[in-house]
């Protein structure tokens, strides 16, 4: 994100977006210095938007390498692109598809916002405005879309490929030595809750059975050698899921819940849908050295991020402990 002070935005000045983005399909071909992101956006005018209103998308240090409208290359006269903004001068009046290809040097992204690579692991941080560092977008919390994400990477470097939602397909890619995974989140969300993680990580697995009998796969992914420090975090997650059912009658709505805990994550925690990411110092505990306070802190942060991940219930950890 840019470092200069942002102007104040007041509620009285709020204007809804001129366009909707209903669906997002991302094809992310991971490479340390040259990740290619192809974003296909299903757009439509919002109610009240006049025909011919320009479409203005946010960017941040982006490199545009391709642009198509309804499958056809868009002539240079029809748009203006900078690293910070993409403007389509006269979009169609009817719903349309925009395909944007950008190139990212994840290894050089020292801001640790958007897509970055550190200690061999690709990771994202999109809150509050990091998604615009991945592709041009209406990067604001009142734009909700359904996301499908295809990840591809060298199998030896990134045996683990994680995205939001449910895993729907995996396999070997056409590029020798590469594999892919496709993730789909059927629930509309803002771009700041998008996430992906890819790397060589160890897995601590478990399951949770919901009140209706649905089996949910649970995983905590950590750096190799730290698998033995995941037990309390997993137990805290399962108790959080049960409490949410008992307190609100709400079951978890996906088939898998993944947690990634790595030492280079720039935030304490992030409640991305179905793929919570933590700095591992907040969720891992060595049974030989952890204190009661360590365990209480892990329990609190897991509960907090689980609630924010999907329910929309902004319940404090204090409420959880009291109830």
How would you portray this structure in words?
- The protein is mainly β.
- It has two domains: 20-199, Immunoglobulin-like, CATH 2.60.40.1730; 202-322, Zincin-like.
- Helices cover 13% and strands 40% of the residues.
- It contains three helices and 20 strands.
- The strands form four sheets. An eight-stranded mixed β-sheet has the order 5-4-8-2-1-11-14-13, with no helix packed on it.
- A hairpin with a 5-residue loop joins strand 1 and strand 2.
- The longest helix has 19 residues, at 292-310.
- The radius of gyration is 20 Å and the shape is globular.
- The two termini are 39 Å apart.
- Residues 311-323 have low confidence and may be disordered.
